[in-house]
Amino acid sequence: MSYAGQMLGAIPGGIKVDANVDVLAEVIDALGDCAQACAADTDADLSEQNLAEMVPCIRLCEDCADVCAATARVLSRPARWDARFMMLLLEACVAVCRSCGDECERHAPMHGHCRVCAAACFRCEQTCRGLLDVMT
Hints:
With 136 residues, the chain is mostly helical.
């Protein structure tokens, strides 16, 4: 079990959301993985020879990393959730992960780091969609 799952399971009185601990922990883990992959991809992109071509990827990765990291932090505090706010955050993650994943996928045949980042973005998008489905 991940640390997110362990922490969520240790909350006195349990979580107060319409999702089970395993689903919520999976989303938090995917958000953290995506934020890390985007940060690493940005650094790798900056090392590429055709830097100008990588600028859109770098910008999307930075945005995606920030949105995912912030959402993971908020999801990690489920004791007092505002469901509307959480849904907006998750929708933002779905959108930015899709955009970033699509951009990284464009570069994936030439850059392995972009392939890894795209996979992390698409996984995060899917897990966030899954949590949204449970919440609606």
